[in-house]
Amino acid sequence: MVKVYIGLGSNLGDSRAILRAAYDAVAFLGFNPRISTLYRSSPIGGPSQPPYLNAVMSLETSWRPEQLLQMLHRIEERFGRHRRERWGARRLDLDLLLYGNRMIATPDLVVPHPRMLERRFVLEPLAELAPDLVIPGNHGLQQALREVSHQEVERIHDPFGTLWND
């Protein structure tokens, strides 16, 4: 079994409900994911668009990284995700951030996620789940967080509290 971390984001539609449904879709496949609290962040790059809600989930799997990525893409497609515009608004974005300690570089998959160290909205929720994590090929998560501390993110609520159930 390999511990993996998946970033979740949404800024179109009912983002809270969409992120909850994406979590449920992963759990339905037999995984027992843990999920961080939610964070609100401004979009980075791309056209003008609404703020994002973001979270990170972790799970253990025996699936190959490519299988996991295909599953994430299928879930995104169920929520209307079409990969047309880079950094555009989306109902659901699922990113495979880390796959154990592996470093992967193929035309379809790069792990660790190539921009995760530049994004506080990824690192903050990741630190909730694994505060002492060392990112393969880089440095510790806490050092990475210090380097993006100038970026604004807003912690929302416990994902299984009122935010997920109202």
Write a short abstract of this structure.
This protein is of the alpha+beta class and 166 residues long. It has helices spanning 15-28, 65-78, 120-129, 141-147, 162-165; strands at residues 2-10, 34-35, 39-41, 52-61, 93-99, 104-105, 110-111, 153-155.
Question: How would you describe this structure to a colleague?
Answer:
This protein is α+β, with helices and mostly antiparallel strands and 166 residues long. Helix 3 runs antiparallel to helix 4 (141-147). The protein has five helices and eight strands; from the N terminus they run βαβββαβββααβα. A hairpin with a 4-residue loop joins strand 6 and strand 7 (110-111). The protein is globular and about 35 Å long. The strands form two sheets. Strands 1, 2, 3, 4, 5 and 8 form a six-stranded antiparallel beta sheet that branches. Strands 6-7 form a two-stranded antiparallel sheet.
Major beta-sheet overview: 6 strands, antiparallel
- What is the 3D shape? globular
Using only C-alpha atoms, the radius of gyration works out to: 15 Å
Instruction: Give the helix proportion (percent range).
Output: 25-40%
What is the end-to-end distance?
Answer: 35 Å
* Residue fraction in strands: 15-25%
Structural class: alpha+beta
Topology:
Elements: E1 2-10, H1 15-28, E2 34-35, E3 39-41, E4 52-61, H2 65-78, E5 93-99, E6 104-105, E7 110-111, H3 120-129, H4 141-147, E8 153-155, H5 162-165
Helix pairs in contact: 3-4
